[in-house]
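[RESIDUES AND BACKBONE]
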Amino acid sequence: MIDLPLLLALFVAVAYFTFSSRGMPAYTFGIYLDLPNVIIHECGHALTARLWGGSIQSIKFNVLPSIVKSGGILGLAEIGNRSGLGMFFSLLGGYVSQALFFVVMSYLYLQGLLLWIIPLFLGVYLLTNLLAREKSFWQNLIILIAMGSSILIYRNDSSVLMRIYQSVDVITIGFVVWYMLGLAHQFFIVLLLKNDSHWDGSALATKTYIPSVIWKVLFLIAMGGAYFAPSWLQLLLV
Protein backbone atom coordinates (compact mmCIF):
# COMPACT_ATOMS: atom_id res chain seq x y z
CA MET A 1 0.00 0.00 0.00
CA ILE A 2 1.09 3.62 -0.31
CA ASP A 3 3.56 4.55 2.42
CA LEU A 4 3.54 7.75 4.45
CA PRO A 5 6.13 9.77 2.41
CA LEU A 6 4.17 9.16 -0.79
CA LEU A 7 0.88 10.00 0.94
CA LEU A 8 2.39 13.29 2.09
CA ALA A 9 3.80 14.04 -1.37
CA LEU A 10 0.42 13.43 -3.03
CA PHE A 11 -1.31 15.50 -0.34
CA VAL A 12 1.00 18.45 -1.06
CA ALA A 13 0.52 17.99 -4.83
CA VAL A 14 -3.28 18.09 -4.45
CA ALA A 15 -2.94 21.17 -2.22
CA TYR A 16 -0.88 22.89 -4.92
CA PHE A 17 -3.46 21.98 -7.57
CA THR A 18 -6.35 23.21 -5.41
CA PHE A 19 -4.83 26.56 -4.50
CA SER A 20 -3.08 27.43 -7.78
CA SER A 21 -5.21 26.00 -10.61
CA ARG A 22 -7.45 28.29 -12.62
CA GLY A 23 -9.59 27.95 -15.73
CA MET A 24 -12.15 25.52 -17.07
CA PRO A 25 -9.74 22.58 -17.71
CA ALA A 26 -8.64 22.60 -14.04
CA TYR A 27 -12.25 23.03 -12.90
CA THR A 28 -13.30 20.06 -15.06
CA PHE A 29 -10.46 17.92 -13.72
CA GLY A 30 -11.48 18.82 -10.15
CA ILE A 31 -15.07 17.76 -10.81
CA TYR A 32 -14.11 14.30 -12.06
CA LEU A 33 -11.47 13.96 -9.35
CA ASP A 34 -14.18 14.55 -6.71
CA LEU A 35 -16.94 12.43 -8.28
CA PRO A 36 -16.53 9.15 -6.28
CA ASN A 37 -16.30 11.14 -3.04
CA VAL A 38 -19.35 13.19 -3.92
CA ILE A 39 -21.37 10.05 -4.69
CA ILE A 40 -20.58 8.60 -1.24
CA HIS A 41 -21.11 12.04 0.33
CA GLU A 42 -24.65 12.38 -1.04
CA CYS A 43 -25.45 8.72 -0.34
CA GLY A 44 -24.25 9.35 3.21
CA HIS A 45 -26.69 12.25 3.59
CA ALA A 46 -29.53 10.14 2.23
CA LEU A 47 -28.87 6.90 4.10
CA THR A 48 -28.33 8.53 7.50
CA ALA A 49 -31.56 10.48 7.02
CA ARG A 50 -33.34 7.23 6.14
CA LEU A 51 -31.83 5.54 9.18
CA TRP A 52 -33.37 8.23 11.38
CA GLY A 53 -36.83 7.88 9.89
CA GLY A 54 -36.59 10.29 6.96
CA SER A 55 -37.43 9.58 3.35
CA ILE A 56 -35.21 9.80 0.28
CA GLN A 57 -36.89 11.62 -2.58
CA SER A 58 -34.01 11.30 -5.05
CA ILE A 59 -30.27 11.38 -5.43
CA LYS A 60 -28.86 13.19 -8.45
CA PHE A 61 -25.45 14.01 -9.87
CA ASN A 62 -24.32 16.46 -12.54
CA VAL A 63 -21.24 15.44 -14.51
CA LEU A 64 -21.18 18.17 -17.17
CA PRO A 65 -18.77 20.91 -16.02
CA SER A 66 -20.87 23.72 -17.53
CA ILE A 67 -23.95 22.60 -15.57
CA VAL A 68 -21.96 22.17 -12.36
CA LYS A 69 -20.37 25.60 -12.74
CA SER A 70 -23.67 27.37 -13.43
CA GLY A 71 -25.60 25.57 -10.68
CA GLY A 72 -22.77 25.16 -8.21
CA ILE A 73 -23.89 21.60 -7.43
CA LEU A 74 -22.12 18.36 -8.39
CA GLY A 75 -24.44 16.12 -6.36
CA LEU A 76 -27.70 16.54 -4.48
CA ALA A 77 -29.67 14.26 -2.15
CA GLU A 78 -33.29 15.38 -1.87
CA ILE A 79 -34.62 14.26 1.52
CA GLY A 80 -38.01 14.69 3.17
CA ASN A 81 -39.78 14.02 6.47
CA ARG A 82 -36.72 14.40 8.67
CA SER A 83 -36.96 14.80 12.43
CA GLY A 84 -34.62 17.16 14.26
CA LEU A 85 -32.17 14.35 14.96
CA GLY A 86 -32.60 13.06 11.43
CA MET A 87 -31.67 16.48 10.04
CA PHE A 88 -28.63 16.69 12.32
CA PHE A 89 -27.28 13.23 11.49
CA SER A 90 -28.01 13.53 7.79
CA LEU A 91 -26.02 16.78 7.66
CA LEU A 92 -23.17 15.06 9.47
CA GLY A 93 -23.47 12.03 7.20
CA GLY A 94 -21.93 13.60 4.10
CA TYR A 95 -18.30 14.34 4.93
CA VAL A 96 -18.17 11.71 7.68
CA SER A 97 -19.42 9.00 5.30
CA GLN A 98 -16.91 9.79 2.57
CA ALA A 99 -14.12 9.76 5.18
CA LEU A 100 -15.25 6.47 6.74
CA PHE A 101 -15.65 4.88 3.32
CA PHE A 102 -11.99 5.44 2.52
CA VAL A 103 -11.01 3.91 5.88
CA VAL A 104 -13.05 0.83 4.92
CA MET A 105 -11.47 0.77 1.45
CA SER A 106 -8.00 0.98 2.96
CA TYR A 107 -8.76 -1.84 5.39
CA LEU A 108 -10.08 -4.09 2.62
CA TYR A 109 -7.04 -3.31 0.49
CA LEU A 110 -4.59 -4.10 3.29
CA GLN A 111 -6.41 -7.37 3.97
CA GLY A 112 -6.16 -8.36 0.31
CA LEU A 113 -9.94 -8.19 -0.15
CA LEU A 114 -9.85 -6.27 -3.43
CA LEU A 115 -12.99 -8.07 -4.58
CA TRP A 116 -15.17 -6.04 -2.29
CA ILE A 117 -14.01 -2.46 -2.94
CA ILE A 118 -15.75 -1.55 -6.20
CA PRO A 119 -18.85 -3.73 -5.56
CA LEU A 120 -19.17 -2.10 -2.12
CA PHE A 121 -19.03 1.36 -3.70
CA LEU A 122 -21.64 0.39 -6.28
CA GLY A 123 -23.72 -1.31 -3.57
CA VAL A 124 -23.95 1.88 -1.51
CA TYR A 125 -25.09 3.79 -4.59
CA LEU A 126 -27.55 1.04 -5.54
CA LEU A 127 -29.06 0.86 -2.04
CA THR A 128 -29.60 4.62 -2.00
CA ASN A 129 -31.26 4.48 -5.42
CA LEU A 130 -33.53 1.61 -4.38
CA LEU A 131 -34.63 3.45 -1.23
CA ALA A 132 -35.36 6.67 -3.14
CA ARG A 133 -38.88 7.40 -4.33
CA GLU A 134 -37.58 8.44 -7.74
CA LYS A 135 -35.81 5.34 -9.10
CA SER A 136 -33.88 4.82 -12.31
CA PHE A 137 -34.48 1.27 -13.60
CA TRP A 138 -31.69 1.33 -16.17
CA GLN A 139 -29.19 2.90 -13.79
CA ASN A 140 -29.90 0.25 -11.14
CA LEU A 141 -29.73 -2.52 -13.75
CA ILE A 142 -26.31 -1.34 -14.92
CA ILE A 143 -25.05 -1.24 -11.33
CA LEU A 144 -26.31 -4.78 -10.68
CA ILE A 145 -24.66 -6.07 -13.87
CA ALA A 146 -21.35 -4.40 -12.92
CA MET A 147 -21.47 -5.89 -9.40
CA GLY A 148 -22.36 -9.36 -10.67
CA SER A 149 -19.68 -9.26 -13.37
CA SER A 150 -17.03 -8.24 -10.83
CA ILE A 151 -17.88 -11.17 -8.56
CA LEU A 152 -17.95 -13.68 -11.44
CA ILE A 153 -14.57 -12.50 -12.70
CA TYR A 154 -13.00 -12.98 -9.30
CA ARG A 155 -14.53 -16.43 -8.76
CA ASN A 156 -13.83 -17.94 -12.20
CA ASP A 157 -10.53 -19.81 -12.59
CA SER A 158 -10.27 -19.97 -16.40
CA SER A 159 -7.12 -18.53 -17.92
CA VAL A 160 -8.89 -15.82 -19.91
CA LEU A 161 -10.81 -14.57 -16.90
CA MET A 162 -7.67 -14.77 -14.74
CA ARG A 163 -6.04 -12.24 -17.06
CA ILE A 164 -9.10 -10.04 -16.65
CA TYR A 165 -8.83 -10.62 -12.90
CA GLN A 166 -5.33 -9.17 -12.93
CA SER A 167 -6.51 -6.16 -14.89
CA VAL A 168 -9.39 -5.70 -12.46
CA ASP A 169 -6.82 -5.52 -9.67
CA VAL A 170 -5.14 -2.69 -11.54
CA ILE A 171 -8.53 -1.02 -12.02
CA THR A 172 -9.29 -1.43 -8.31
CA ILE A 173 -5.95 0.09 -7.31
CA GLY A 174 -6.64 2.96 -9.70
CA PHE A 175 -10.05 3.47 -8.14
CA VAL A 176 -8.57 3.52 -4.62
CA VAL A 177 -6.02 6.15 -5.66
CA TRP A 178 -8.73 8.14 -7.48
CA TYR A 179 -10.90 8.17 -4.37
CA MET A 180 -7.91 9.04 -2.16
CA LEU A 181 -6.85 12.02 -4.29
CA GLY A 182 -10.47 13.19 -4.44
CA LEU A 183 -10.64 12.98 -0.65
CA ALA A 184 -7.54 15.19 -0.38
CA HIS A 185 -9.05 17.64 -2.87
CA GLN A 186 -12.28 17.74 -0.87
CA PHE A 187 -10.21 18.41 2.27
CA PHE A 188 -8.76 21.57 0.73
CA ILE A 189 -12.10 22.62 -0.75
CA VAL A 190 -13.64 22.48 2.75
CA LEU A 191 -10.63 24.40 4.07
CA LEU A 192 -11.35 27.13 1.52
CA LEU A 193 -15.09 27.33 2.22
CA LYS A 194 -16.21 30.47 4.01
CA ASN A 195 -18.05 29.97 7.27
CA ASP A 196 -21.06 31.95 6.03
CA SER A 197 -21.36 30.12 2.68
CA HIS A 198 -23.99 27.50 1.87
CA TRP A 199 -22.57 24.11 2.89
CA ASP A 200 -23.04 21.38 5.51
CA GLY A 201 -21.10 23.27 8.18
CA SER A 202 -23.22 26.41 7.92
CA ALA A 203 -26.41 24.32 7.94
CA LEU A 204 -25.23 22.54 11.09
CA ALA A 205 -24.38 25.89 12.67
CA THR A 206 -27.94 27.07 12.00
CA LYS A 207 -29.44 23.93 13.54
CA THR A 208 -27.15 23.63 16.56
CA TYR A 209 -25.89 27.20 17.13
CA ILE A 210 -22.37 25.79 17.17
CA PRO A 211 -20.21 28.03 14.92
CA SER A 212 -19.54 26.63 11.47
CA VAL A 213 -15.78 27.00 12.02
CA ILE A 214 -16.07 24.24 14.65
CA TRP A 215 -17.82 21.96 12.18
CA LYS A 216 -15.19 22.80 9.59
CA VAL A 217 -12.40 21.75 11.97
CA LEU A 218 -14.21 18.49 12.81
CA PHE A 219 -14.79 17.67 9.14
CA LEU A 220 -11.14 18.45 8.32
CA ILE A 221 -9.95 16.16 11.13
CA ALA A 222 -12.21 13.35 9.88
CA MET A 223 -11.16 13.71 6.24
CA GLY A 224 -7.48 14.28 6.98
CA GLY A 225 -7.38 11.28 9.31
CA ALA A 226 -9.13 9.12 6.71
CA TYR A 227 -6.70 10.19 3.97
CA PHE A 228 -3.79 8.83 5.99
CA ALA A 229 -5.67 5.62 6.87
CA PRO A 230 -3.35 3.45 4.69
CA SER A 231 -0.50 4.47 6.97
CA TRP A 232 -2.05 4.27 10.45
CA LEU A 233 -4.07 1.15 9.66
CA GLN A 234 -0.84 -0.67 8.81
CA LEU A 235 0.42 0.12 12.31
CA LEU A 236 -2.81 -1.09 13.91
CA LEU A 237 -2.88 -4.32 11.89
CA VAL A 238 0.73 -5.32 12.63
Observations:
- The chain has a mean pLDDT of 85.
- The two ends are 14 Å apart (CA to CA).
- The chain is about 75% helix and 5% strand.
- The first helix runs from residue 4 to 20.
